[in-house]
Amino acid sequence: MSQKFCSLLIISLLLLFGGSNDSFAREDFVPPREPHYSTNETGMLGLNLIPNARMDKVGTIRIGAGTNDPYMHNFIGFQLAKPLYVSLRQTSEISNLTESADRLYPGMDFKLRLAQEKQYRPAIALGIDSAFGHKKMGGEYLSFSKRYNNFDFTAGMAWGRLGSAGHIKNPLRAISSHFGEKRNFNSEQPQNISDWFTGPDIGFFGGVEYFTPIHGLSLKADYGANDYDGERSAINGFDAPDPWSVGLNYSPLDFMSLSAGVVGGKKVMARISLQDQIFNWPGRPSAKISPPEITSPRPVIPDEKSSHKTNLALTAYGSTANQIGHAVRNLANSASPHQENLEVTIKHMGLKGPTIRLIRSDLERAVLNGTMSSDEIWHDVDIIKDTTPKEKWWKNLIVKKKGSSHSFRFILDNKLSLSEEDTGPLYRSSALIEGQKTWPLGFISGARGRINLSDNLSRISAFRTPSFDPIRSDEKEFADNRFAIDQLYGSWLRSLNTNTHIGLSGGYLDEMFAGFGGEILYRPFGKTFAIGAEGWHVNKRDPSTEFNQKLASEKKLTGHLNLFYEVPQQNMTLYSKIGRYLGEDFGATFGIDKTFKNGTKLSGFVTATDQADQDIFGDTTHLYSGISFSLPLGNIPYVPKGSEIRITSAPFAHDTGQILNHPLPLYEVSEPLSSRQLHNSWEDLLK
């Protein structure tokens, strides 16, 4: 290890862990002014070249690009949860921005916060670059960040590309010799879990960011541990810079960040990113219906004409508790004067939830006198779970509402890929027009048309051809049809009791497949877990026919065991799917879904199976991953409730790890009936 680096590291560590002042008086350190943290060259929060231990606010979305010869990095990232940031990145090997890229290196990067900053402890984060993707950018790190007034200090250790300077031997070799294996950054095989934290040596990095008195302007300086091994061996004449950099970052607006700097005195780097919080999205809530007035004094209604119970058909586009609140007000006006208990049994699309029993006088004190809050009402609420129904089974299917119900909505569906190795970013944009009708006895019919608006999937044809038995590798052919039937189906949903639900569906189930199948879900009310199973028998649809209506003769059987876990007080679900995919490959999917109060949703997933897709470079991968978010359009005049904008970042035209996107997943359909939704929305009871 050089004397120069040792000195820099010691100074950084002393600044990180030495001393304190009045700004550290609180247990959770709050800086004197909210800083404009920004990304490093690859799109992860950091300095110029190195990552720090900082996190964005939950719900932040970042999109941008950075350049540092010989690479240009395009990225889109999401703060999925307080401790987890995920980014999809496509790195282009390109020295002249006016020329086409020589190679493309996609990857999924993530950072996991291990500890928040405290009075005497730095923030600590563990991160992996190209956790799933090309080995060229693969690297792992442990970073520490500490704030002192307007200075933010970072130090850490790195494996892989980020630590290729090799200052000390890899300490993980003491656990297993596997961690000492040499890594080939120019290999065409994808990075996978077995590559993480391997390599004979590791490196140390450090740096500092100074937030100037000029709002939005900061200065960055860092010293990395990347000695450009892969570039020296693969790029003729590559002049590797020294691993230090200085630069500045300026955020003229909260949603924009601009950066420029010098690397090793030889290279110039630049970056731009746009970011915002989806909390700021104004699409929901839609205009609210004024609640019914409560009659005072209580109306004189004979017992034989009074009603203190009702079945409430919920809508998925409104607050569960708010809909219950409106229903109990109507009950209060139709019940006899001596009736104190008001009961609402909640149902949704044929599924049955618990009965919510409220005390009438509590409601009157809250609405008429303002002397009781929704929280106080909650303490007197009884929740009756129907685990052993005594009534005839067919009565559970009936939602007591005149006639049937129907809904209509519009979806602007956008898909973007930064995960291709043979072409630059790909996109596809479609308009979906969807109608659905709920009939008595739990029957549901639905139809959805697709208008393909725009795409650049013709780039795929230059490099790839669909497989002989395509699953989704013929996506370009489907996109070429201007109009198509996306879904056309009939379903039957039923609750065996409050906790157990079943569903059957048949027809055109997603854009590329038609068939039939079913699902069962056990979701105990009041618990944070659910378990289910599904199985489907489908045929591939033919994109060469009008509206994609004809079917191929080859049949597919797919099915999964589904597991769900609700993270308490986060409105976030962790899930896994284990089973057989559409390409007859076996494997598992792990994902996370987060829903915000304004109706915006974020999700990310990784799928690993026993079969691999292959590209033109001979690269094979068993992994398929993506990130998506949806933005509701509920408050825009004349736009139907439930309309939304969907944006998905995932690879195009893959055959492995593909699931059926059937129209009525039971976990989603049962969500308005869940304990989580009832608790999270209870403050809306009186609105």
Overview of this structure, please?
The protein folds into three domains: 3-280, Beta Barrel (Porin); 303-400 and 679-684, no CATH class; 406-662, Beta Barrel (Porin), CATH 2.40.160. Helices cover 10% and strands 45% of the residues. It contains nine helices and 31 strands. It has helices spanning 3-17, 229-234, 320-334, 360-369, 374-379, 458-461, 475-479, 666-669, 675-680, and strands at 60-68, 71-81, 84-93, 103-115, 123-134, 139-148, 151-160, 168-169, 190-191, 201-211, 217-223, 244-253, 256-263, 267-277, 309-313, 341-348, 351-359, 382-384, 405-417, 426-438, 443-455, 483-495, 500-510, 513-522, 529-541, 551-567, 572-580, 586-595, 601-614, 620-632, 644-649. The longest helix is centred in the first third of the chain and has 15 residues, at 3-17. It is globular. 43% of the residues are buried.
